[in-house]
Write a structure and sequence with these properties.
Elements: H1 2-46, H2 56-64, H3 66-76, H4 83-98, H5 111-131, H6 138-167, H7 174-181
Helix pairs in contact: 1-6, 2-3, 3-4, 4-5, 5-6
Length: 200
């Protein structure tokens, strides 16, 4: 009889604990769903990129630089409905931004432009990384969106600056002076061994 009472109490405790676990699990699932909805709303509200050229130089570059145009077009399309759509968009942006290093117009093949493109690539790939995490840090994603916009503006302003400098006429003799100042063209400063045979 004692064993029966003990067994009955043990079974009663087991069933009540299982019931509590199910209720607790349901409550945790509801919290997780609510948290994901809040994250989705925050990211959706902040997902706004500068997808249009900010100056005439950028507009001309978009016409001739296919990769830059495709990247801006991809930025201009805002995903809808689910977090999965944002994840797909971030993955696509990550692919498109890598292509910016291809076919850079000749006048923009300068370290200033390449470094800005490199920074832009890093920011977009970070956005892709953060948005694919299980626990999405929405504040970091929102911060990265602002940083990507700042890098886009910086890139386009640098392109404009380079274009404006190229319009300045070169004075007579200036190109010769610049060539003379170029250290890569200088005669190497090596010591000649007098014992080595020379070709004359």
């Amino acid at each position: 009889m004692k064993y029966l009472v003990v067994l009955f109490c043990a079974l009663l405790l087991l069933f009540t604990s299982c019931k509590d676990d199910a209720q607790q699990r349901d409550a945790e699932n509801k919290k997780a769903i609510q948290k994901k909805e809040v994250i989705y709303k925050n990211i959706s509200k902040s997902w706004d990129f500068y997808a249009t050229p900010i100056n005439t130089t950028s507009e001309q570059s978009v016409a001739s630089w296919t990769e830059f145009r495709q990247f801006l077009d991809e930025l201009g399309q805002k995903p809808r409905k689910t977090m999965g759509a944002f994840q797909k968009k971030a993955a696509e942006l990550s692919k498109k931004v890598l292509l910016l290093n291809n076919n850079i117009p000749f006048q923009f093949q300068q370290p200033q432009i390449k470094s800005r493109i490199g920074t832009l690539i890093t920011k977009v790939r970070l956005l892709n990384l953060f948005i694919h995490l299980d626990n999405i840090p929405d504040k970091k994603v929102i911060l990265l969106i602002g940083e990507i916009n700042a890098e886009l503006v910086s890139l386009q302003r640098q392109m404009d600056k380079i274009t404006e400098k190229s319009k300045i006429p070169v004075e007579e003799g200036e190109s010769d002076m610049l060539r003379m100042l170029d250290t890569t063209r200088a005669i190497p400063n090596t010591i000649v061994n007098p014992n080595l045979p020379r070709v004359e």
